[in-house]
Amino acid sequence: MAHAKWEYFVTPLLLHNEAQILNNWGAQGWELVQIITGPAGGNVAYLKRKAK
């Protein structure tokens, strides 16, 4: 059985548009993995999807 291959994407989240940003990425097949506070402050989202 072959293992799934993933690609990853990291993006900042603007505080007033979190849902819209995540919905846009989700519509393109990206799944949210986690949200953390970035080194300069603010939230950073880590997303993944199966590699094509």
What does this structure look like?
- With 52 residues, the chain is an alpha+beta fold.
- It has one helix and three strands.
- The protein has one helix spanning 18-27, and strands at residues 6-13, 31-37, 43-50.
- It has a three-stranded antiparallel β-sheet with strand order 1-3-2, with helices on one face.
- Strand 2 (31-37) and strand 3 form a beta hairpin.
- The mean pLDDT is 93.
Report, as a whole number of angstroms, the end-to-end distance.
Answer: 17 Å
Nearest-angstrom radius of gyration? 12 Å
Task: Characterize the largest beta sheet: strand count, sense, and whether it forms a barrel.
Answer: 3 strands, antiparallel
- Report the structural category: alpha+beta
